[in-house]
């Protein structure tokens, strides 16, 4: 398994917004933040992927901060990610966020051929977490993989802000 250098990964991350290139990946910002209510009922089957009540879009304050109270949130990457057919991506929280009290509740795999604005789920276990909209939240890492006969063509292909 070979982890790509950040400069190589950066070629597959569309800008704006700007990204931060690291030795082994890139840091990206979020474009949307949604609260998932505590009493939500989620349904998932071959055709249905929904929550009730619907997720609530959280907007930054006038001074540019997301004010996140204790709870579960879906965050959407601001940059479009294009994963080539010879790579697989992994999405991690920046360690600074973990140190300050945010828990990222899953690490997602981005399949070869995926293109879009991926989402992640985070949990805020503390009373209040303030994070500026221009801070990078997620580090994306690519690794070499065997080229498959099929690239990703699932439900989330070409996901973008607003869907």
Jot down its keywords.
single chain; mainly beta; 163 residues; Deoxyuridine 5'-Triphosphate Nucleotidohydrolase, Chain A; five-stranded antiparallel β-sheet
How many strands, which pairing sense, and closed or not: the largest β-sheet? 5 strands, antiparallel
Q: Which structural class best describes the helix and strand composition? A: mainly beta
Count of individual helical segments: 2
Assigned CATH architecture: Distorted Sandwich
- How much helical structure, as a percent, in the residues? under 10%
* Poorly predicted parts: none
Overview of the structural elements:
The protein has 163 residues and is mostly beta strands. The protein has one domain (6-144): Deoxyuridine triphosphatase (dUTPase) (Deoxyuridine 5'-Triphosphate Nucleotidohydrolase, Chain A). The protein has two helices and 14 strands; from the N terminus they run αβββββββββαβββββ. It has helices at 6-10, 95-99; strands at 20-22, 25-28, 30-36, 41-44, 49-52, 56-58, 65-77, 81-82, 87-93, 103-104, 108-110, 115-116, 119-132, 138-144. The strands form four sheets. It has a five-stranded antiparallel beta sheet with strand order 1-2-14-9-11. The longest helix is centred in the first third of the chain and has 5 residues, at 6-10. The mean pLDDT is 89.
